[in-house]
């Protein structure tokens, strides 16, 4: 039932304050005396010791699920100190890439049935790695065949293009990072700040969803364009990839997510006064680097749409000639959850993009 919405995708985007709340329910703990704030992931508590001892964590997934893992990678590396590798399931299989007994492999999948991810799971099991699932579907093949895991509890997702599952996956992986790092005293303040940020997240997402009309206007402006570039880095590299993926699959417009640090090594050649470019420049450790990227794009007369933290318009766009979209401030590693909405909010509401299926269960 789509209720008041025209499409499931739109409904699912607007459900996120609730789906994120359900994802976190019973898993974030505030209170108690010595350990005031912590995370409890029932499905992982008996495996955390092994995960902490692993030589590598390898995230494996396809499409949006891969992008969600990419968004969580920096916080996992920071809080666990364990190297985190990223694998697109089909590419891992094509290469028969090395997977070891000392690895923790994490399979991220909304449906829990994607054929490539499932085959990569079989491959990792054969190679003796610990296999962890992050899935939305209880009883799915990936949930059944992993050694342990976490259900994201985002509720049924019908729109082919994943939306609420993406944000819930990121939240689960941030909670995974918190749980793994739970025994490290030096990062306690950081962890507590992230937990506070997670508690605040549903209301911040609600705030961002109010930008619906503004995003609709922007979508109208871009509707006739051939192409759109999205620049991000750090926590928002994944936002750039995922935003571009959504534009491609739902608006059927060519779009590319670009790691801003790679700008000079090719993409800069594309910049002119016609091509629209979205730059994600929220407040985090990469902010000043993004400011300089904006200046360089501006010097080449780039048509810029800058997404920044509230109050930062003047510092991201000195010339005043960019279109600005502001999001509320949250803890840096949670920022992708807000910035992401700006790339998908409006105008592209199709539940069944041509040529695409919700889950590919065969070759
Ligand atoms: C579980 C219950 C939940 C209950 C809660 C109360 C289920 C599905 N969940 O949630 O209804 O309210 O206890 O304490 O019954 N798993 C995998 N692979 C995956 C995902 C999960 O092996 O991809 C395993 C987990 O290791 C765990 C089980 O499935 O053994 C349930 O996982 P999850 O639902 O995340 O656990 P809880 O949050 O504890
Ligand atoms: C694709 C979907 O077919 O599968 C994407 O169109 C999705 O939206 C991808 O991200 C992976 O699916 P899953 O279920 O493994 O997360």
TrEMBL record:
Protein name listed in UniProt: glutamine--fructose-6-phosphate transaminase (isomerizing)
Keyword Repeat assigned: yes
Domain of life of the organism encoding this protein: Eukaryota
SIS domain location: 47-186, 218-353
Keyword list, A-Z: Aminotransferase, Glutamine amidotransferase, Repeat, Transferase
Signal peptide: none
């Amino acid at each position: 039932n789509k209720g008041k919405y025209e499409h499931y995708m739109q409904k699912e985007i607007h459900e996120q304050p609730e789906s994120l709340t359900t994802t976190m329910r019973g898993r974030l703990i505030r209170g108690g005396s010595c350990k005031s704030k912590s995370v409890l992931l029932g499905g992982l508590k008996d495996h955390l010791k092994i995960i902490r001892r692993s030589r590598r964590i390898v995230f494996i997934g396809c499409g949006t699920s891969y992008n969600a893992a990419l968004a969580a990678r920096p916080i996992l590396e920071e809080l666990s100190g364990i190297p985190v590798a990223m694998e697109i399931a089909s590419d891992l299989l094509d290469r028969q890439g090395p997977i070891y007994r000392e690895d923790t492999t994490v399979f991220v999948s909304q449906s829990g049935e994607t054929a490539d991810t499932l085959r990569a799971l079989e491959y990792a099991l054969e190679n003796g790695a610990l296999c962890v699932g992050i899935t939305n579907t209880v009883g799915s093949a990936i949930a059944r065949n992993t050694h342990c895991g976490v259900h994201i509890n985002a509720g049924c997702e019908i729109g082919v293009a994943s939306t609420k599952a993406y944000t819930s996956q990121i939240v689960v992986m941030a909670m995974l990072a918190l749980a793994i790092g739970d025994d490290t005293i030096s990062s306690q303040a950081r962890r507590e700040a992230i937990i506070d940020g997670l508690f605040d997240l549903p209301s911040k997402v609600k705030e961002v969803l109010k930008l619906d009309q503004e995003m609709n206007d922007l979508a109208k402006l871009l509707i006739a364009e051939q192409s759109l570039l999205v620049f991000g880095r750090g926590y928002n590299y994944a936002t750039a990839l995922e935003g571009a993926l959504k534009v491609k699959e739902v608006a059927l417009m060519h779009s590319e997510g670009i790691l801003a640090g790679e700008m000079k090594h090719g993409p800069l050649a594309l910049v002119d006064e016609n091509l629209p470019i979205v730059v994600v420049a929220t407040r985090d450790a990469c902010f000043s680097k993004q400011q300089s990227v904006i200046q360089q794009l501006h010097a080449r007369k780039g048509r810029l749409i800058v997404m920044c933290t509230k109050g930062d318009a003047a510092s991201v766009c000195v010339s005043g000639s960019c279109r600005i979209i502001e999001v509320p401030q949250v803890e840096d590693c949670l920022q992708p959850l807000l910035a992401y909405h700006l790339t998908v909010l409006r105008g592209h509401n199709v539940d069944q993009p041509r040529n695409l299926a919700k889950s590919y269960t065969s070759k």
